Amino acid sequence: MESLLDENFGAVKAKHSSEEALQRWRGLVGLEKLRVAVLVSKAAIQFLKGVQPSDYVVPQEVKAAGFDICGDELGSLVEGRDPKKLEYHGGVAGIADKLSTSTTTGLSTDGDLLNHRQEIFGINKFTESQPRSFWVYVWEALQDMTLMILGVCAFVSLIVGLATEGWPKGAHDGLGIVASILLVVFVTAISDYRQSLQFRDLDKEKKKISIQVTRNGYRQKMSIYDLLPGDIVHLSIGDQVPADGLFVSGFSVVIDESSLTGESEPVMVTAEHPFLLSGTKVQDGSCKMMITTVGMRTQWGKLMATLSEGGDDETPLQVKLNGVATIIGKIGLFFAIVTFAVLVQKMFSRKLLEGTQWSWCGDDALEMLEYFAIAVTIVVVAVPEGLPLAVTLSLAFAMKKMMNDKALVRHLAACETMGSATTICSDKTGTLTTNHMTVVKACICMNIKEVSKSGNTSSLCSEIPDATVKLLLQSIFNNTGGEVVVNKEGKREILGSPTETALLEFGLSLGGDFHTERNAAELVKVEPFNSTKKRMGVVLQLPNGGLRAHCKGASEIILAACDKVVNSDGEVVPLDEASVNHLKVTIDQFAGEALRTLCLAYVELENGFSADNPIPLSGYTCIGIVGIKDPVRPGVRESVALCHSAGVTVRMVTGDNINTAKAIARECGILTDGGIAIEGPDFREKSLEELHELIPKIQVMARSSPLDKHTLVKHLRTTFGEVVAVTGDGTNDAPALHEADIGLAMGIAGTEVAKESADVIILDDNFSTIVTVAKWGRSVYVNIQKFVQFQLTVNVVALIVNFSSACLTGSAPLTAVQLLWVNMIMDTLGALALATEPPNDELMKRQPVGRRGNFISNVMWRNILGQSLYQFLVIWFLQSSGKAIFGLDGSGSDLVLNTLIFNSFVFCQAL
């Protein structure tokens, strides 16, 4: 039996079985490389054809609508980031003129121009797949193998019943089977449909996003879905770019494009490099942008259109259950054929003895049909008709409980897939860590102090001279691109890049007041952070009339610009060799602990300094060095240890640098002595043979691209037969989420494309929640195993009773409808009892089932056969002595009662 089961459903297919769909997905993983390749190809074709930007001709319908540029030209302009094409069109001002808009007053809503604009350029909405109707879920529920077998039996039973007994008596069995099928189908469909509605409602709430826009000269709030090309949008720190567009004006704008391209390095947007892409985020600064491309014409929209292709395949448990149903169906069919053959042989033998073998009448034909009906009953008896209902109830119960545990299950069957997982490829930022940078160590006045724990900042403040504290707060609150504001709810909120936020929080914890410090001195000059110089600086006009410059940046660079330092007494002293070595050792120590270090310094300026002069690059006094870190989430180390004890390998895949990744991985317990940490560029250079040797040992992959992550997941699944779970939050993670057996998208930091590609959404972005999902998945698997054992025990006995009785007496004591409805009642009760058993800690002490694990173990088979034999003997005893004990006459209805009595006994045992 085991060999048959393994042969039929031992290997689990990919979540998307279509090779064509998989190839499309794999082609998407190098999004940025693909984009560059396409642009290079276009440039080459243009060169060969002699086509220049000046050859662009405005379509007639666009001109008639009042515009001098079309949507496709605008799309290629921004997507290609082509400065020559932008220059040809007259720069940002020229594009504004061609779009009939103003960079100062925005669009005019007068007349029909707004409607024409919408008709020509489209709206800022993505084409979404139509929500599936309830009947689609009904159709999908009907695809269950068990229900298909029962459907065939129902059809045959109806035909035979009507032919032998007529209407309505002959239709009882067939209609009874149909009713049981409909019961299971509608329970499954209703559960799936309700879950889809829940996700849709949640999705609608998340899409209610407003943004500041200038129209008709007035700044106003608008939904991002009402934006049109030519709109002037105001962006600030933390905002998501709502459409493709061009930078108009602003201050130190840094854009995080990692969600779209996978590149962790932020991009500076300036008048010289004015291109802004939909779906990216403003990491620092503020600006005005002019919308050029909306909706499906944006790069984000094109990506979403491609990612929506493909369909889902079956999960490991679904494959195994279908295999069980198939094998049992074959066994039932075998016994049915044998039964029919035995009954027909008896009929021929009887006619041979009577000498009527050559004389056939209508009664003989009806008798043959009755034998056929008995054979159909044998098949119905063998099939575990309650199995789909039990699976649905178990998954629905788990899904509801998982929602309480901060996990939204998008696909019902994904509940159990995570329970079979053998490896988890996890992001670092936001999943293993809090995604909230914090100052955890500081070296102020040459003394190193821990500042991550509550109360430490107050003790640190008491150990620093007051003058140094004031100097430190002046540096933190003035030399920053962030801001401290009060939101609508009256709560204090810190805006800025993660690094700026960490420093501002540190300053506030030291007792500083942002607005007081900002108002105490006049800002004379600002030099924003420069990625080349790796520093930023400001010049302040002090209340006493003096000028002071503050700078901060990469520790090694700022320290090299210092010739003095504030010592432990708060005095400014020359920076000697011993002090320099002490500070350099401190920087190395902080870096070794995965801390991002910043050095703060100041210099007193002469009164002759002008705002036109550059801020000095040397002569500074070092105030101190701070170590900033994205702390590991509470409970992550314990959760990783729990995964290891459960036989699940956890791997970190991140775009961060390898030293930070290794330090965080060690802190989480992911990187062990025998594990390997590798960078993406090194990984992609390995040959297939090297990868085969390397991949099982990889525990950390840093500086990884979307291609690297996709390749790793693909090899783990296909080459090593792992059941892979992948976490992700960016658009660039979508291919890996799609390739994995189960995709886990982050609910807070995750993009819409990532969520659409995922099976489960982790609402709190916490790795501990992922472990909870795994625990629930294992619970579902075990509960369904228990139910299958309970179900098969009953069915094996019923099969033996009907088969032996049919062969010996020529009639089946249990009709299809009788046994079907008894089983449906018993199965429902059994499912409710077994399927709703919550997970326990023992589940995470077992090894995962994996892709080829046996669904029905040898122990289970022994239990099934042992209990079946015991139950058969009891039923036989009840049948033979029923008249003496219960006053029964051994008829079919009495046997149903006897079976029900014993099933109740077995059910109590199961409980």
Automatic annotation (TrEMBL):
GO CC, alphabetical: plasma membrane
Principal cellular location given in the protein's record: membrane
Species assigned in the record: Rhododendron griersonianum
Domain of life: Eukaryota
PANTHER family: CALCIUM-TRANSPORTING ATPASE 2, PLASMA MEMBRANE-TYPE, CATION TRANSPORTING ATPASE
Keywords from the UniProt entry: ATP-binding, Calcium, Calcium transport, Calmodulin-binding, Ion transport, Magnesium, Membrane, Metal-binding, Nucleotide-binding, Translocase, Transmembrane, Transmembrane helix, Transport
Protein purpose: Catalyzes the hydrolysis of ATP coupled with the transport of calcium.
Membrane topology, as annotated: Multi-pass membrane protein
InterPro entries: ATPase_P-typ_cation-transptr_C (IPR006068), ATPase_P-typ_cation-transptr_N (IPR004014), ATPase_P-typ_cyto_dom_N (IPR023299), ATPase_P-typ_P_site (IPR018303), ATPase_P-typ_TM_dom_sf (IPR023298), ATPase_P-typ_transduc_dom_A_sf (IPR008250), ATPase_P-type_domA (IPR059000), Ca_ATPase_N_dom (IPR024750)
Keyword Metal-binding: yes
E.C. number: 7.2.2.10
Domain Cation-transporting P-type ATPase N-terminal residues, every copy: 86-162
GO MF terms, alphabetically ordered: ATP binding; ATP hydrolysis activity; calmodulin binding; metal ion binding; P-type calcium transporter activity
Protein's name in the database: Calcium-transporting ATPase
Catalytic reaction equation(s): Ca(2+)(in) + ATP + H2O = Ca(2+)(out) + ADP + phosphate + H(+)
Family: Belongs to the cation transport ATPase (P-type) (TC 3.A.3) family. Type IIB subfamily.
Compartment(s) of residence: Membrane
Chain segments annotated as transmembrane: 145-163, 175-193, 327-348, 368-398
